[in-house]
Amino acid sequence: MVLEKHLITRLGLKIEDGRLKMSLTPEESKRYARHFTLPEVGQAGQEKLKDSSVLCIGAGGLGSPVALYLAAAGVGTIGIVDDDNVESSNLQRQIIHGESWIGKPKSDSAQARLLETNPYIDIVTHKTKFTAENAMEIARDYDVIIDGTDNFPTRYLSNDVAFLLKIPNIYGSIFQFEGQMSVFAPHLGGPCYRCMLPVPPDPGTVPT
Questions:
Q1: Quick one: DSSP state of residue 84?
Q2: Which distant-in-sequence residues (6+ apart) come within 8 Å of 70 by Cβ?
Q3: Range of the domain at 56
């Protein structure tokens, strides 16, 4: 019994109400010690982060810092959707990638960097475009969608999928030195992306 309890602790699990639930290993407790001092987080909040999952659509200029901070914060499962390869022209802003990854898939580059940032989390790669044919299948297992793309069809699609799955959709957009972001959660009584922008702009009329 003592050995079983030791293994449960080392695996980052705990027994609550007779069931195994996510907990923090001793190594993770050291890593997140500063979070424990924040009343808004604490150990219970950190365990919730470990038990949560976020789907990041895009591993580019927006997705790079988002994914890095999610990993560092201890979000337990991070999904990366991207079908592009790393190019040298990406490196001045897409900080998750490095010189040695040029010509290789962005999703693989992101996975390697995120696991180097935090080896106690899971990274799931989806080396494909986020399309109407696969969006629901990809997103159904995540708690939150973060849209880091640069095109309107995918933005509307991520909104619609989040709406149907009743999960938050976090949207961000940048142009040169300007940016905007919002959290859409219509299942909690708020608006969605289509409420903000009911009709997509004509192609080529808005810079990305």
A1: P
A2: 54, 56, 78
A3: 52-196
Please indicate, yes or no, if residue 7 is contained in any of the structural domains.
no
Residue reference for tokens 């990993």: 71
Q: pLDDT tens across 105-164, in order? A: 999 999 999 999 999 999 999 999 999 999 999 999 999 999 999 889 999 999 999 999
For residue 40, being part of any structural domain is answered with no
How many domains, the chain? 1
Q: Which residues contact 170 (CB under 8 A, 6 or more apart)?
A: 144, 145, 146, 147, 181, 182, 183, 184
CATH of the domain at 134: 3.40.50.720
Rounded Cα gap, residues 138 and 148, in angstroms? 16
* Nearest-angstrom CA–CA distance, 42 and 34: 9
Q: Quick count: other Cβ atoms within 10 Å of Cβ 168?
A: 18
pTM for this structure? 0.87
**CA angle, 145 as apex, 31 and 201 as ends, to 5°?**
140
From 43, 32, 42, 23, select the one nearest 74 (Cα to Cα).
Answer: 32
Q: CB 55: neighbour CB atoms within 10 A? A: 28
Residue 78 included in any domain = yes
Assess if residue 120 is contained within a domain: yes
